[in-house]
Amino acid sequence: MSRIDDLRDAIVARSRLLVMFSGGLDSALLARLAYDALGSNTAALTIESEVVPRKEACTARTLAAEIGIAHDILCVQELDQAHFRSNPPDRCYHCRKARDAAARRWAEAHGFSTIADGLNYSDLSDYRPGLSAANEDGIWHPFIEFRIGKDDIRGLSKELRLTGWDRPSMACLASRFPHGFAVTTERIDRVDRAEEYLQSLGFAKVRVRHFAYEHAMIEIDDPDKAVRMREEITARLRELGFSFVSLDLEDFASGKMNRTAGV
Hints:
The protein is an alpha/beta fold. The protein has helices at about 1-15, 25-40, 55-65, 80-85, 90-110, 130-135, 140-145, 150-160, 185-200, 225-230, 230-240, and strands at about 15-20, 40-50, 70-75, 115, 205-210, 215-220, 245. It is globular and about 55 Å long. The mean pLDDT is about 95.
């Protein structure tokens, strides 16, 4: 793919590159391409926080070790920000500003002038206030620049035999809450544990949307199986603190909560 070749050349031209590395499919491929091109002149930085599923930091560590790239983890506490907790439509903008600032400080301390992330060309079709923040902060988006979308990334990751090439996309846990409904530590933990439980039952694509009155709306890739297991699932989510448990009748899709932002 000529776009990938052009991307590799662009990475080489940067000389030293820091990759913002969530451990998801997009950033994993970027880290692999950067390491293949630059070796010890690249590094991966993972932001760990309460709004990231607990298992994701472990996944990032494992993937970084598999790739061979130098890896570090920083903690950012978005829930310390009152504006973030209130969950306005521009929540992602402020979250990204905090993360970029932390990454920039780390990069400057370790001699990296360029920071790149894994946002891809397909992301432009969704409401992404975090992208505006990243643009303001001078973060490089190589997959966007070279028009490389999600399907391209998944295909190349499979070709390179990257672990997790077939994993579903993962999003910040704050995306499980309708805008204007406060994001709290208790609610974040409840959602995280509920999704871990559903994944343990063999569901691959899972979202537990948290609404008022401790209402869990389950969005899942196999609703028929969920209906068959409804008593077990309901009992476990009630244990976690949900008062009501329902099943989304639409197909699984990321970004549904953007509807509550009017976009």
